Amino acid sequence: MKRLLTFTLMAATAAVAVRAQSPSRIVTDTIPSEILGVAKAFSVYLPAGYDDSDRDYPVLYLLHGATDDHQSWLVKGNMRKIADVTYLSGMAVPAVIVMPDAAGEEPGNRGYRMGYFDKPGWEYERHFFEEFIPAVESRYRIRSGKNYRAVAGLSMGGGGSMVYALHRPDLFGSCCPLSGLLAAPRIPDRLIDDEAFHESIVRDDPQAIIREAGPAELDSYRTVRWYIDCGDDDFLYECNVQTYLLMREKEIPLQYRMRDGGHSWEYWQSALPTVLTFISVPFAE
Amino acid sequence: MKRLLTFTLMAATAAVAVRAQSPSRIVTDTIPSEILGVAKAFSVYLPAGYDDSDRDYPVLYLLHGATDDHQSWLVKGNMRKIADVTYLSGMAVPAVIVMPDAAGEEPGNRGYRMGYFDKPGWEYERHFFEEFIPAVESRYRIRSGKNYRAVAGLSMGGGGSMVYALHRPDLFGSCCPLSGLLAAPRIPDRLIDDEAFHESIVRDDPQAIIREAGPAELDSYRTVRWYIDCGDDDFLYECNVQTYLLMREKEIPLQYRMRDGGHSWEYWQSALPTVLTFISVPFAE
Amino acid sequence: MKRLLTFTLMAATAAVAVRAQSPSRIVTDTIPSEILGVAKAFSVYLPAGYDDSDRDYPVLYLLHGATDDHQSWLVKGNMRKIADVTYLSGMAVPAVIVMPDAAGEEPGNRGYRMGYFDKPGWEYERHFFEEFIPAVESRYRIRSGKNYRAVAGLSMGGGGSMVYALHRPDLFGSCCPLSGLLAAPRIPDRLIDDEAFHESIVRDDPQAIIREAGPAELDSYRTVRWYIDCGDDDFLYECNVQTYLLMREKEIPLQYRMRDGGHSWEYWQSALPTVLTFISVPFAE
Amino acid sequence: MKRLLTFTLMAATAAVAVRAQSPSRIVTDTIPSEILGVAKAFSVYLPAGYDDSDRDYPVLYLLHGATDDHQSWLVKGNMRKIADVTYLSGMAVPAVIVMPDAAGEEPGNRGYRMGYFDKPGWEYERHFFEEFIPAVESRYRIRSGKNYRAVAGLSMGGGGSMVYALHRPDLFGSCCPLSGLLAAPRIPDRLIDDEAFHESIVRDDPQAIIREAGPAELDSYRTVRWYIDCGDDDFLYECNVQTYLLMREKEIPLQYRMRDGGHSWEYWQSALPTVLTFISVPFAE
Questions:
Q1: What does the pLDDT read at residue C49?
Q2: B98 strand-pairing partners
């Protein structure tokens, strides 16, 4: 019998032979929400070695964009492979990576229940802080403390991550919005007419939050490590660049990157290793 | 009616508005082969702007790996998006990119008819030079001359690209094997027992070709620009590194990269922009 | 006698042995200017191989910053080594690189005669276009045509390069301002009180030029390939980011990069290889 | 009075305003050695913030090459600026970086007393472990434990770092040889005729150490995180690549990079940020 296994399989076999630790794995989990009145699914990446000891890990909350859900970073974003390689190469400290679900319940993952903010009858942000984080951090072995908790996200989830860190700078050591929707967009009516989504973004505008902040709030924002990344071809370039200008004006230290590219999974995939490195630094405190 | 188009669509629309050239497109084409006795399919990437003028383009022959085919660089390798972005960002000279089919005709794209070399009754290499290149370069607007023709490939196709450029250094300005099968591998029997494939690789071993070359052949190899890239975790590391050692010993100038990674599409995708830049340089001659 | 030559020397020797072309060289040249009433020095980088044939080369005008001169890219910027490596690695098409002198004649390279713009009695820009470019391009083997001419510069020279390309888009295929002074800065009086310099910058403000341009001028700007790069810690961040916003608003295609760093030679050194690649692309036309 | 301060100064001022921590500083220190019978100088980089608290820091021993000394990484390698930027950008955990002096005492920093290994009458390695490390770690606030100690070096110091980590894998969490002299070189007599240096390298050949190691030693080598980097144009390419082949054969996990370049400060400067990130990962344990 003639057999030819693929080279990829051979490579994988060889790699496992050398390093005797449990491989990374993905868990699809669910949390019943009293606040929302429904059960919400979420995905969890447990890094290689998680199953080999009892030690606690830092955590990254990694938020998806509009019309996506808790599986998009895995399926479209290839996040498992990217995290595996980044950790195996020794360029970041392994973390548990949690991907929540802020999709709507209409076809195409949209509608009133889409988004990271509170709306009448759908208080997603309250759910996130009061139900979701506590549940995740009790079910998985998460090291407690602001230094060991980070939040990042893309597009709508970039805006979500930024607002979450502005609302609760005591909770997050690092915040990394990628191509974030960092302001209520001036988008032609013919493209978006979901008013509830639009209103929630107007209400939770990160630039407005920063502009109206007093000295104590500004000081609290300075305790978060900010890493903002938005490509020079992105259609959300304006709100990102204006957030950069505002944060420099307010003397909130931040990292900002404008690389080549647009609003695409290629851009976010190539951003992820740097995000994993960046959030690692306070893990050593 | 409530509508929410995806952000990606919006971004695409905006980008097209600015640049008034025809977008890139993919053609799936076919060539009847007298040598092989069958028709062979191939894929062609025509860069943005190709349809807007009558000018000729440089050409890159981009070879797939074992058990893949002429669609793999497109489907698994995301090559269209990568080439689009590289060209749009102004970091490489647009080329026509031709992806041939060296798959076998057994299930899983394997069997006797797999590979880039000649076997009794299946002279693929002869087909490539005598039928395929001439057909491609008459059907598409290809600039003639060694400087404007490059060959690259991954894994089995990395070996193919290397041997093609060693056999015909007069035809190729640049050659870029990625994670190439650059020697007959010492692979345990249980993994590969396709003898015909194995024999064709033993017969067309790039290191043997170089080792046995006389001064005139060595000089001809020095007229090709070589760029070899194989990750530090790749299971084919040994034959790649030995080819590097041999070429340095023989004073054949080359570029060699060992980046982080294994035998994976992530590695080849991240290699492609550099390959497109590297092959561009002689296009200006 | 015990001798130990440095490893660096050995490496250099080995490299030269392999590639039998003349090495790059630096020429310090002088042009007598009737317009300025003085002789101006300039530096020229001739790439490896320049002395081996009679063929013409593309040209890059590479401008220095305030208080520097025609030697700064060489001495502080390490440009010769960087260009050598970029060209040897095959990632850019070799060009002649010309470094003019826009230093003032007071101590510290400042004073009234500093800068790239026209002032009463010191018409540097007129000198640049009417005397300098023609002299350079007749003394050295420069390929004629917009596609083969690029201009780049750092800080004050970034502003100079941008304004030159806006004033003469027919002359330059590419323009690459690095950390450019792209607007009259709002700088506290205690830091800059050189009024003539300030006034020349106010008069030649790239944003004003773009803002006031009519449709024909805007179309001409679209024939230049723009690459703007300014670090997220740069003190000139604001005028760079605003230029980016303005060019996107005016639908002038551009590349923009915001990498990590400030107003430093490290930043410009790491930008140079990409600039050399970027300007190469139209050389193949 | 007309004044024009350089832009660089302005940038520096602005940056300091935002971040209220003590800047990094360089200490030139001295240790009297009983073993060597002389006093040896060394340089220490204390990261920004070191003077603001009492907390302990991880430590990196960063070794210089042949004919250099404890000031070379500072003067030729620009290490202070590179470390400052890497730490400020949040891509590595700040460490104390110690640069010892293994120069000889003949003109040109060579002669019998040059090198990291023991010779009759000049037991530098014994001095390093018995006198130098203890002195450094008591004078500066160094966190104790293998995880918080790393060693790296270039060329001769790359060899030194590798042998030190092989001799004392219990002491070092990470080891990063850059363009390392990882074997006794086959170098023509006319280039090196310092026999003592040559003999010490033959005696402390990292490949011999690995080849002759028993299972327990091999296991201990696997507790060190290895990062080896040597450019494709380096004249020391062969011993580096062979070390890579040997370590893969012996199943000692390692990172290996072959980037574009030779035996040059440009190469080591561009390697340093990655080294600082790589050694940071175990600091979080």
A1: 97
A2: B44, B61
Ranges B178-182, B210-214, C280-284, D200-204: which has the least confidence: D200-204
Residue of B139, B113, B140 whose CA lies nearest to B127? B113
Most D-contacting residue of B227, B228, B230, B232 (CB-CB within 10 A), to test interface: B232
Is the separation of the CB atoms in C95 and C58 below 8 Å?
yes
Mean pLDDT of chain D: 91
Q: Cβ B19–C253 below 8 Å, yes or no? A: yes
A22-48: average pLDDT: 97
Query: Which tens digits make up the pLDDT trace of A165-213?
Result: 999 999 999 999 999 999 876 654 434 556 777 788 788 899 999 999 9
Distance between CA C43 and CA B4 in Å, rounded? 57
How many CB atoms neighbour CB B170 within 10 A? 10
Flag whether residue A253 sits within 8 Å of chain C, measured between CB atoms: no
Of D89, D197, D262, nearest to C260 by CB-CB distance is D89
* A40 pLDDT tier (thresholds 50, 70, 90): very high
Q: Is the pLDDT of residue D5 over 90?
A: no
Q: What is the pTM of this model?
A: 0.93
Tokens of D89: 């950008």
Q: What long-range pairs does C123-130 form, CB within 8 A, spacing at least 24? A: C123/C35, C123/C36, C124/C36, C125/C163, C125/C164, C125/C167, C125/C204, C126/C35, C127/C33, C127/C35, C127/C36, C127/C40, C128/C100, C128/C164, C129/C164, C129/C168, C129/C171, C130/C35
Instruction: Find the Cα–Cα–Cα–Cα dihedral A178, A180, A182, A187, rounded to 10°.
Output: 150
Task: Give this complex's ipTM.
Answer: 0.90
Amino acid at B264: S
User: Which of D176, D227, D228, D232 to probe by mutation at the B interface, max B CB count within 10 Å?
Assistant: D232
Mutation for testing the B interface, residue in D179, D235, D236, D256 having most B CBs under 10 Å: D256
- Residue A116 in contact with partner chain D when CB distance is under 8 A: no
Nearest to C244 by CA among C263, C257, C233, C232: C257
- Nearest neighbour of C255 by CB, restricted to A241, A255, A260: A260
With 50 as the cut, is the pLDDT of residue D119 above it?
Answer: yes
* C145-to-C38, C150, C169 alpha-carbon distances in Å: 29, 10, 12
pLDDT, average across residues C102-126? 92
Find out whether D278 and A90 touch, Cβ atoms under 8 Å: yes
Question: Which tokens go with A84?
Answer: 């595996």
Task: Give chain A's largest Cα–Cα span.
Answer: 75
Phi-psi region of B255 (alpha: psi -120 to 50; beta: other; left: phi over 0): beta
Residues 6+ apart with CB under 8 A from D87: D24, D47, D48, D94, D276
Of B125 and A105, the structure prediction assigns the larger pLDDT to: B125
* Mean predicted confidence (pLDDT) in A230-253: 97
Taking the C-alpha atoms of residue C156 and residue C179, their distance in angstroms, rounded to an integer, is 9
Tell me the C-alpha distance between B63 and A180, whole Å.
38
Nearest chain B Cα distance for residue A235, angstroms: 5
pLDDT digits (tens, 9 = 90+) for C37-86: 999 999 999 999 999 999 999 999 999 999 999 999 999 999 999 999 99
Cα distances (Å, whole numbers) of residue B92 to C231, C274, C278: 24, 11, 8
Write down the mean pLDDT value for chain A.
Answer: 91
Burial B189-215 (b: 16+ CB within 10 A, else e): eeebebebbeebbeebbbbeebeebee
| Alpha carbon D129 to its chain's center | 15
Which residues in chain B touch residue C281, judged by CB atoms under 8 angstroms apart? 90-93, 280
Q: Any chain D CB within 8 A of the CB of A283? A: yes
Rounded CA separation C110/D271 (Å):
36
Which percentage of chain C shows pLDDT scores above 70? 90
Distance CA D100, CA D63 (A): 6
